[in-house]
UniProtKB/TrEMBL annotation:
Residues 1-47 form the HTH cro/C1-type domain. Gene3D superfamilies: lambda repressor-like DNA-binding domains (1.10.260.40). This is HTH cro/C1-type domain-containing protein. CDD domains: HTH_XRE (cd00093). It comes from the Bacteria. InterPro entries: Cro/C1-type_HTH, Lambda_DNA-bd_dom_sf. Pfam families: HTH_3.
């Protein structure tokens, strides 16, 4: 699939797709679901890497930056755990 076709399918610009591929632009959660739909994937979580040897998602591994750099490590861990649980529940329902 070309960048332009994917961009059209997910409602983004081709430049945004190129920036995401190069790591210059972050992917929002709702975009992840649009990508999965456009790529005819049944589970958006399949687009995410999983932590090696762990069921917990690691924000560093995922490359998920937090907009507010003042968020505590404890809050980051709680947020990561919530995302991990949500994705696990989605996989078990699929």
């Amino acid at each position: 699939m070309t960048q332009q076709k994917l961009a059209t399918a997910v409602g983004m610009s081709r430049a945004s797709i190129a920036n995401i591929e190069c790591g210059r632009q972050n992917v929002l959660l709702h975009h992840l679901y649009r990508f999965a739909e456009a790529l005819k994937m049944s589970n958006a979580a399949d687009l995410l890497p999983t932590a090696v040897g762990s069921s917990r998602l690691d924000t560093e591994l995922l490359g998920v930056p937090f907009a507010d750099q003042n968020i505590s490590e404890q809050t980051k861990a709680v947020m990561s755990e919530l995302v991990s649980k949500a994705l696990s529940q989605r996989k078990s329902k699929a």
